[in-house]
Specification:
This protein is of the alpha/beta class. The chain has 11 helices and 12 strands. The strands form 3 sheets. It has an 8-stranded mixed β-sheet, sandwiched between helices. Helix 3 runs antiparallel to helix 4.
């Protein structure tokens, strides 16, 4: 039997008109068996332009079949019909809230345990200090719509922009290093996604760039999401440029420069939209330096509302790889705990 959205909806609507619970469940069990036997991954309703994930459909039907009363059964059937025929999205993403159960790939907890980075397509772990693609992937799906604009003032090797291209978002990437811009260009060319997006790369100091002029050149007035992954002060020296944040001579100088970037980017971010910072702390001279919370405070000083503090694990760093025993010894001697996490702060512009 060929499974179509209209066929499923016909059975569901007929069930709503039935008064016999046993008959409804019999028909839905038969429908569920046919769906399980089908090779479809999605059921596409061309009439309503709604795509329904097969696993979501199976889970919903299982829940309906397990109900005890006809009232509850029909309530769940009505909910499934609505999910298959209506799209309800918010102002800041394309998530269909009528099918919210189908978004298993979207993390909603504040503890992110990610075993390994996504190295598919154009992504690569070769750039020292880049973040994992899952971070921008999660944020762009939750806090942007297709066709909107994303700004990354520390573009690095282009991780954010690769994900933007994959997801159909436009992107602006800025970096003080020419090498980073060239690397990002090369990585974007390797990406095979065909979404018709626009990408703007700029070699410049993010603390001094006139972002309004850049937006005028592009022909837009604002961006809808900003993601910052700055150097973790001087843990990794990214260049010899004195204006590079990784060459800041003190924590105050680092935070002052970081604050300038928030000042520069805030006017071009739409009101009510989101900004994320990915950063870790530092341990130096027997003292834990809370870079994460310092940058969080700098951002909140500028009127942003803190929406979430996310803790993400990491198992290895280049500096600690193959030295686990040595670091355990250092920890025992020095009376500190070894870094196994970094912070992701999510803010909303008031």
């Amino acid at each position: 039997m060929k499974i179509t959205a209209n066929h499923i909806l016909e059975i569901l609507n007929n069930s709503l008109n039935s008064t016999e619970l046993s008959v409804i469940k019999h028909n839905l069990k038969k429908l569920l068996d046919n769906i399980k036997k089908s090779n479809l991954l999605e059921i596409d309703s061309k009439e309503n332009n709604v795509k329904t994930d097969k696993i979501y459909l199976e889970n919903e039907l299982n829940q309906i079949i397990e109900t005890k009363t006809i009232e509850r059964t029909k309530y769940y059937i009505q909910r499934l019909v609505k999910g298959m025929t209506e799209i309800r999205t918010g102002k800041i993403n394309d998530i269909n809230l009528n099918q919210w159960k189908s978004y298993d790939d979207i993390i909603t907890d504040s503890l992110w345990i990610l075993d390994k980075r996504d190295n598919s397509g154009a992504h690569s772990a070769g750039y020292w200090g880049n973040f994992i693609p899952q971070i921008p992937n999660q944020f762009l799906k939750r806090f942007t719509k297709k066709g909107e604009w994303v700004l990354d003032p520390f573009v690095g090797s282009g991780t954010t922009l690769i994900e933007a291209k994959r997801l159909g978002r436009n992107g602006i990437g800025v970096d003080i290093q020419k090498l980073s811009i060239e690397l990002t260009e090369a990585n974007l060319k390797k990406d095979n996604s065909t979404n018709p997006v626009k990408i703007k790369l700029i070699e410049a100091d993010s603390t001094k760039l006139n972002y309004e002029n850049i937006l005028k050149e592009i022909g837009i007035k604002s961006v809808q999401f900003v993601i910052l992954h700055p150097p973790y002060w001087d843990i990794i020296k990214f260049s010899d440029n004195k204006d590079d944040l990784s060459n800041a001579k003190s924590i105050d100088e680092f935070l002052n420069s970081f604050g300038k970037i928030i000042d520069k980017t805030t006017p071009i971010l739409d009101k009510g939209r989101y900004l994320a910072i990915v950063i870790s702390d530092k341990y130096e001279n027997g003292e834990w330096i809370p870079l994460g919370f310092y940058t969080m405070q700098e951002t909140m000083k500028r009127g942003y509302k803190l929406k979430s503090t996310i803790v993400k694990n990491f198992e290895d760093t280049t500096a600690k790889r193959n030295q686990k025993s040595l670091w355990k010894y250092r920890s025992l001697v020095g009376g500190f705990y070894i870094f196994k996490h970094e912070y992701i702060f999510l803010f909303q512009k008031k």
